[in-house]
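Lab notebook, bench 4. We co-purified these components, and the gel suggests they stay together. Before we commit to crystallization screens, I want a quick structural picture of the whole thing.
Request: model the full complex, all chains together.
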Amino acid sequence: MKKSSRTQGSRYYPKRYDFDPAQRNAILDEGLVCHVSFVVENQPFIIPTGYCRVDDVLYLHGSVGSHFFMQMAKGIPVCVAVTLLDGLVLARTVFDHSMNYRSVVAFGKTRLVESDEERWLAAERFTEHVIPGRWEEAGKPTKSDMKKTMFIAVEVEEWSVKFRSHGVSDDPENMGLEVWAGVLPLKQVPQAPEADEEGVKGIPVPDYVLNYKRG
Amino acid sequence: MKKSSRTQGSRYYPKRYDFDPAQRNAILDEGLVCHVSFVVENQPFIIPTGYCRVDDVLYLHGSVGSHFFMQMAKGIPVCVAVTLLDGLVLARTVFDHSMNYRSVVAFGKTRLVESDEERWLAAERFTEHVIPGRWEEAGKPTKSDMKKTMFIAVEVEEWSVKFRSHGVSDDPENMGLEVWAGVLPLKQVPQAPEADEEGVKGIPVPDYVLNYKRG
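Here is the predicted assembly.
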């Protein structure tokens, strides 16, 4: 686990930096969307997209016709961020307001996944990352589906894990202010499933949909 | 509203691209965290951070001691993304799975905010963006608080708004599969407020905390 000027925080927040791989994996496995940045002629770009993790590798997938994926197929430096927002920290003064969050930022290089074995592994793990139980049940990709799909591995060279998870930190001189202070937790909550009304009738909603949760 | 190779989708998804400023503003005003990318020596970086919108300008703020903010104070090209995840689209086949989301990607240049008037406007709008009603009630920033805080305006040159908001789109030949299909909506939901136990006792939870919602 290297630290460098890319991943060392510019100010030392001992509570906010952490490089424990288990915590990093927990954040990556809970997140659903990542933001990928890359550079074209000194211009930064960001694309929000799905992802999955297999050990220390992040996988992305997209259409073989996507310009973004064609860029990544060449092997380019990327930065990938996954951020989970956990709550609003409402201090007695505006200045001490904050947010609770957990984030992973990964620096690495893209690699086009070429072997069938790794492509199928990525396809399965992608599906299971988003909704465990779905791969077994849904129709598997056909040869034609797989031909249309590009898988990119991000070989991560450096990770940064940053978080804030504690309560309000007001300055002592502000503790007498008559202002409500506390944390308002935020959570990504599944709502009632909306069944598609076409196709075969009477299929019950699977347990893995009814009981879906992250983290 | 310019379109260029930066903001034109590489494939034409009429349902997914849109440049309506009202929709763009709604996404920006609902989001709480943005991802900012910038380039240092051809290396892309991403920082997740808070933001607010004032008309067509995005504001960021951070510590005057932050390396990231010191970079941005120089006036550098950035890409800023705000992504809202609305649901999982569970098709009959793995290949047709998708996500419903709304995202804004902005390309622009950073500008150090120097005038007191604009700095105070940004401070107020930042607070009100996160939790409307809070600015009036919480202790205002002191001169010293403001000295420690850098405000950066992102002067946006181009916007891209992308979304998916419809149901399952399975290929006709897969409609006979006996697989449950539908959308599992996801929503960022506030949980019970956790009051700070220090300080003045007996302050009721404000309505703007109890009834907090986004969008």
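The longest helix of chain B spans residues 116-130. Worth comparing against the SEC data before the next meeting. The two ends of chain B are 24 Å apart (CA to CA).
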